Amino acid sequence: MMRIFLGIVLLFSSFISIPVFAQTTEDTQTMFKQANEYFGKGEYNQAIIIYDNILQVVPNNISTLKMKAIALSNSGYHEKSLKEFFK
């Protein structure tokens, strides 16, 4: 009886997590576009804040790490930039 209950719980939890992951992915894509808009305007500090928020959700996102490193470099934070490039 306990195995059936655990099976049902696992089944339902997998259905719940799929939309959450999809929403997170869509949110980070929207955030990435917004950060790139700030980057394009030369508002690097705003872009860095958003890149950091994305990296909290998707820590190993190469595009975000690269753009954050470039934004840091453009802001004069060259040492921090190098650390981001070599993460």
Structure, briefly:
The chain is mainly α and 87 residues long. The chain has 4 helices and no strands.
Task: Summarize this structure as a short list of keywords or feature phrases.
87 residues; mainly alpha; 4 helices; disordered N terminus
Distance between the termini: 48 Å
Largest sheet: none
Helix content: over 70%
Counting H and I runs of at least 4 residues, what is the number of helices? 4
Q: What portion of the residues fall into strands of 2 or more residues? A: under 5%
Output mean pLDDT.
77
CATH topology, by name, is: Serine Threonine Protein Phosphatase 5, Tetratricopeptide repeat
Q: What is the tally of beta strands?
A: 0
Number of domains: 1
* CATH H-level superfamily: Tetratricopeptide repeat domain
Poorly predicted ranges:
2-23
Protein structure class: mainly alpha
Structural overview:
By secondary structure, the protein is mainly alpha-helical. It has one domain: Tetratricopeptide repeat domain (Serine Threonine Protein Phosphatase 5, Tetratricopeptide repeat), CATH 1.25.40.10. It is built from four helices and no strands. The protein has helices at residues 2-40, 44-57, 62-74, 78-85. The longest helix is centred in the N-terminal third of the chain and has 39 residues, at 2-40. It is flat. The termini are far apart.
